[in-house]
């Protein structure tokens, strides 16, 4: 009798394991997942994907207005331009690793898509979750923070398209706001809109040039450049996907030091929709 009880318990345990495995959600489609199913999986930081064989075309009518919605940019690779140790070599981009894990994607961005008279396209970004604070680390250990964004992006394609297809390449400039806000205070209580304009307990030489950059805080807006290459198009759903590469400056700690050039590569997803 004792053995029968043990066998019954083992069978029940096996059935529970099998049923749990069979009911495990398909993590490839996050649109059908609940919050608890996505929690701690990292899927929230991934953009939707499309079938690699999607090679259609979305025709655009000159008399109709359009928008790109649900635009998502997912960074995959980071590079920082580093000065060479030898004076004979030029500065080059060095691969860096992300320290911010899954909170790096730009999502739910939307904007107008305009068909111009020469058949080219213009995308003007309007709103959405269009920035993410990211920190990357160089091989030598230096950490580089920057604000990954496409704020106020105006990107143009080559002429003669009259449609969105796998030959569509959008390229343009965008604004990069300051990594720190105007109300941020550094460890000595200095800030732009709040705090001190000079560090307390510094000697009389605090107004000299070597201290001026740290004392006089600035929230300067910089510029970035991005290229979006469409590689998948579904004419039935209006979905588009592809790869992107952007270049922008890193944070300056409110003007206290020089910025570094950062290059970001990744994938994007969006939908082309007519506006009513």
Commentary on this structure:
It is built from three helices and 13 strands; from the N terminus they run ααββββββββββαβββ. The chain has 276 residues and is mainly β. It folds into two domains: 175 residues, Porin (Beta Barrel), CATH 2.40.160.30; 34 residues, photosynthetic oxygen evolving center fold. It has an eight-stranded antiparallel beta barrel with strand order 2-4-5-8-10-11-12-13. Strands 1-9 form a two-stranded antiparallel sheet. The longest helix is centred in the first third of the chain and has 21 residues. The termini are far apart. About 4% of the residues have low confidence.
Across the major sheet, the strand order is: 2-4-5-8-10-11-12-13
Strands, total number: 13
Anisotropy-based shape? globular
The average pLDDT is: 85
Give the helix tally: 3
Give the CATH architecture of the largest domain.
Beta Barrel
Gap from first CA to last CA = 74 Å
Question: For the record, what CATH class of the largest domain applies?
Answer: Mainly Beta
Q: In sequence order, what are the helices and strands, one letter per element?
A: HHEEEEEEEEEEHEEE
Structural class: mainly beta
Give me the Rg, rounded.
Answer: 25 Å
What is the CATH topology of the largest domain?
Answer: Porin
The largest pleated sheet is described as: 8 strands, antiparallel, barrel
**Proportion of residues in extended strands:** 35-45%
Tell me the name of the CATH homologous superfamily of the largest domain. Answer: Photosystem II, cytochrome c-550 precursor
- Helical coverage, percent range: 10-25%
- Structural domain count: 2
Low-confidence stretches: 19-28
Q: Name the quaternary structure.
A: single chain
């Amino acid at each position: 009798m004792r053995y029968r009880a043990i066998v019954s318990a083992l069978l029940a345990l096996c059935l529970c394991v099998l049923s749990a495995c069979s009911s495990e959600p398909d993590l490839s489609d996050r649109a059908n997942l609940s919050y608890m199913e996505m929690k701690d999986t990292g899927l929230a930081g991934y953009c939707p994907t499309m079938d690699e064989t999607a090679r259609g075309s979305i025709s655009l009518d000159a008399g109709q207005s359009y928008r790109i919605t649900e635009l998502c940019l997912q960074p995959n690779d980071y590079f920082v331009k580093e000065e060479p140790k030898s004076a004979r070599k030029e500065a080059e981009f060095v691969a860096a690793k992300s320290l911010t894990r899954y909170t790096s994607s730009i999502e739910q961005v939307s904007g107008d898509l305009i068909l111009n008279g020469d058949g080219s396209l213009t995308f003007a970004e309007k709103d959405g979750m269009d920035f993410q604070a990211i920190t990357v680390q160089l091989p030598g250990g230096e950490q580089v923070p920057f604000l990954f964004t496409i704020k106020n992006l105006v990107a143009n394609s080559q002429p003669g398209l009259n449609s969105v297809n796998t030959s569509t390449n959008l390229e343009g400039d965008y604004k990069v706001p300051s990594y720190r806000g105007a109300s941020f205070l550094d460890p000595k209580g200095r800030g732009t809109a709040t705090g001190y304009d000079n560090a307390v307990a510094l000697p009389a030489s605090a107004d000299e040039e070597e201290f001026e950059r740290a004392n006089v805080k600035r929230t300067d807006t910089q510029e970035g450049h991005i290229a979006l290459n469409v590689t998948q198009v579904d004419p039935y759903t209006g979905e588009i996907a592809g790869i992107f590469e952007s270049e922008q400056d890193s944070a300056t700690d409110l003007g206290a030091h020089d910025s570094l050039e950062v290059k970001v590569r990744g994938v994007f997803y969006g939908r082309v929709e007519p506006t009513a």
